[in-house]
């Protein structure tokens, strides 16, 4: 069982590392809102980063936004830098869990995971990069298992809604669910959607290194997952979806990779029936298809060369039609944005044999929530940490590098998310 108690030498339940970042500041606010959900109603926490002054400003801002002046004096600050391994070790030794918001994770994430494993500290991150996530699984799974440490990646919008959504839909289906497609859509207010450019930088690195993912996957040497029931057909790269009434593309990101890793773990660990999964996202009408084609072609061409990557990094707003910017979204943009994941599942009703004939049962579920990157992500990350702290006995028996679904399949994470505005329902 995961070790979750604090002690005199390990005084904090959690430390938010990278608290001065765009996402980190909102994780600080979310932790401050949920302290009463910690063990025995009292979460002990601190914030960390490489600049004490910036961290003080984050506490000052959170104190003002939340009307909690005590945050200025009661929350401890730890100075730690990814470039200084001793400072990472010192940070890890003081806490049960590190919530890692230092990004891009593909640049700075590995030293944090290494320090966590070496110092027996659990780690939760919000990487959405399959190359980083699968690479960390390959490199640290057995060491983390030996130390009894849980390294749980992709605990933000990428990919808690998709991964837990698959498990939720499976659990609600009366019978054996074998195939599932999700359709993701976003809504925004008059000022549109916007994301901070560190995520754009993460995407550039991930695309530039995409061949390395195949080599990591070869090293795992996995057997194919057993095929149960009739095969789920793959859709095209662009199609009109009758489900969400708009043009649709496969999701770019880690949802598919994370769900597949979870399914493999559940098959191997609990002999579960695997669910085949297709992840799609709505892009709207013809105007957006033209913008996407322009962005996609420019991105695909420029990302191959270092001068091209520098151009993309320097001008995120130009190349993304304003979707990514160096300032990130305004509070108004965040307050008026939301996401919806519509899941369409099929399987075999109770008493039907999945090895015989076509799927005969259907289910539809919906997962909806607030702005995805800086409102839903902090909620998901903090609830993931609170689940580790409060439900250690329901985590997998051994430590290791886990997906959210692998770590939290037997916990009440979905109920916790429901209480915090990320709602799962059958429709
Ligand atoms: N899964 C999701 O849906 C989701 C949503 C949002 C964000 N993210 C990911 O979260 C990560 C952070 O994004 P962001 O927009 O918040 O980035 P950001 O604003 O650039 O923040 C980066 C943070 O990392 C810190 N940092 C950089 N180098 C460091 C070092 N050597 N030592 C210690 N700290 C260091 C920065 O500290 P300083 O302030 O001192 O520079 C800052 O606190 C990215 O990987 C992004 O893709 C994921």
Automatic annotation (TrEMBL):
<feature type="transmembrane region" description="Helical">
    <location>
        <begin position="277"/>
        <end position="303"/>
    </location>
</feature>
<protein>
    <recommendedName>
        <fullName>Saccharopine dehydrogenase-like oxidoreductase</fullName>
    </recommendedName>
</protein>
<dbReference type="GO" id="GO:0005739">
    <property type="term" value="C:mitochondrion"/>
</dbReference>
<comment type="similarity">
    <text>Belongs to the saccharopine dehydrogenase family.</text>
</comment>
<keyword id="KW-1133">Transmembrane helix</keyword>
<dbReference type="GO" id="GO:0005886">
    <property type="term" value="C:plasma membrane"/>
</dbReference>
<dbReference type="InterPro" id="IPR051276">
    <property type="entry name" value="Saccharopine_DH-like_oxidrdct"/>
</dbReference>
<dbReference type="GO" id="GO:0005811">
    <property type="term" value="C:lipid droplet"/>
</dbReference>
<dbReference type="GO" id="GO:0009247">
    <property type="term" value="P:glycolipid biosynthetic process"/>
</dbReference>
<keyword id="KW-0812">Transmembrane</keyword>
<dbReference type="Pfam" id="PF03435">
    <property type="entry name" value="Sacchrp_dh_NADP"/>
</dbReference>
<dbReference type="InterPro" id="IPR005097">
    <property type="entry name" value="Sacchrp_dh_NADP-bd"/>
</dbReference>
<dbReference type="InterPro" id="IPR036291">
    <property type="entry name" value="NAD(P)-bd_dom_sf"/>
</dbReference>
<feature type="domain" description="Saccharopine dehydrogenase NADP binding">
    <location>
        <begin position="15"/>
        <end position="152"/>
    </location>
</feature>
<keyword id="KW-0472">Membrane</keyword>
């Amino acid at each position: 069982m995961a070790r979750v108690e604090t002690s005199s030498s390990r005084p904090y339940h959690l430390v938010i590392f990278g608290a001065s970042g765009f996402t980190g500041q909102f994780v600080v606010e979310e932790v401050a809102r949920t302290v009463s959900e910690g063990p025995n109603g009292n979460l002990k926490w601190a914030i960390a980063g490489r600049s004490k002054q910036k961290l003080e400003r984050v506490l000052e801002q959170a104190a003002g936004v939340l009307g909690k002046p005590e945050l200025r004096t009661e929350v401890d600050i730890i100075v730690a830098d990814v470039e200084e391994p001793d400072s990472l070790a010192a940070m890890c030794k003081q806490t049960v869990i590190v919530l890692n918001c230092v990004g891009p994770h593909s640049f700075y994430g590995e030293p944090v995971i290494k320090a966590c494993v070496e110092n027996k500290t659990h780690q939760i991150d919000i990487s959405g990069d399959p190359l980083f996530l699968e690479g960390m699984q390959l490199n640290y799974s057995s060491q983390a298992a030996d130390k009894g440490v849980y390294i749980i990646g992709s605990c933000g919008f990428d990919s808690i809604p998709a991964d837990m959504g698959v498990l939720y839909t499976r659990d609600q289906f009366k019978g054996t669910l074998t195939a599932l497609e999700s359709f993701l859509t976003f809504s925004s207010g008059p000022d549109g959607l916007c994301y901070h450019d560190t995520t754009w930088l993460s995407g550039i690195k991930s695309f530039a290194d995409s061949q390395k993912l195949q080599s990591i996957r070869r090293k795992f040497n996995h057997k194919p997952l057993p095929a149960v029931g009739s095969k789920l057909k793959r859709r095209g790269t662009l199609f009109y979806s009758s489900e969400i009434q708009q043009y649709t593309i496969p999701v770019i990101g880690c949802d598919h990779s994370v769900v597949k890793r979870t399914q493999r773990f559940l098959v191997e660990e609990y002999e579960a029936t695997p669910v085949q999964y297709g992840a799609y996202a709505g892009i709207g009408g013809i105007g957006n298809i033209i913008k996407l084609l322009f962005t996609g072609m420019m991105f695909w061409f420029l990302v191959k060369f270092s001068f091209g990557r520098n151009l993309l990094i320097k001008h995120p707003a130009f190349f993304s039609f304003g979707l990514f910017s160096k300032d990130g979204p305004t509070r108004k943009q965040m307050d008026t944005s939301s996401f919806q994941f519509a899941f369409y599942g099929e399987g075999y009703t109770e008493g039907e044999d999945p090895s015989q004939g076509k799927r005969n049962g259907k289910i539809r579920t919906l997962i909806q929530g607030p702005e995805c990157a800086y409102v839903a992500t902090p909620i998901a990350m903090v609830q993931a940490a609170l689940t580790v702290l409060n439900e250690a006995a329901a985590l997998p028996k051994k430590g290791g590098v886990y997906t959210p679904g692998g770590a939290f399949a037997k916990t009440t994470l979905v109920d916790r998310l429901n209480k915090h505005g990320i709602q799962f329902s059958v429709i």
